[in-house]
Amino acid sequence: MRQTTFLAIGLLALPTAALAADDHAVVAPDQVKWAAAPPAFPKGAQLAVVSGDPAKEGLYVIRLKVPAGYKVPPHTHPNDENVTVLSGTSNIGMGGTVDETKGTALKAGGFAKAAKGMQHYAWFTEDSVIQLHGLGPSGITYVNPADDPRKSN
Fold it and tell me: Is the per-residue pLDDT at 139 higher than 90?
């Protein structure tokens, strides 16, 4: 599997509320600026960088807004991924094959952690917003290269 990190140029194109490397960030909900997620995500998602830069070393916080029916095929990350559900329902399953009968549904306030290199997938039964945070640089590698949306986005 080929490890791919977020492209800094793609992140620079995103409107962000707090991309600067300041000592603090204060972002009110109406200040979050959404843009189409980078091509590493399946089409239909919007992304906002809340703090830091996932393409660089250090702490980052991003939000992902997805419509009902959105799915992320099995994948891994080069770092631990921490997910907090802010609204809607996020379903997460572990493993290299999607099996929606074995996942866990998390409502707003729910949290999940996928350790570095752990194969996992997600699907959303309603419009949802999740917050992802971790130590960068981050990236995503799809278990099945044919699932990589960068090949079709």
Answer: yes
Residues in the chain: 153
Cα radius of gyration rounded to whole Å, the chain: 14
Contact present, 7 and 55 (Cβ < 8 Å): yes
Count of CB atoms within 10 A of residue 91's CB?
Answer: 17
pTM of the model: 0.83
- Residue 109, C-beta contacts closer than 8 angstroms, at least 6 positions apart: 84, 85
Is-cis flag, bond preceding 38, omega within 30? no
Give the phi and the psi of residue 148 in degrees, each rounded to 5. -65, 115
Say which residue the tokens 């916080």 belong to: 61
DSSP bridge pairs for 6: none
- Closest to 101 measured CA to CA, from 123, 129, 118: 123
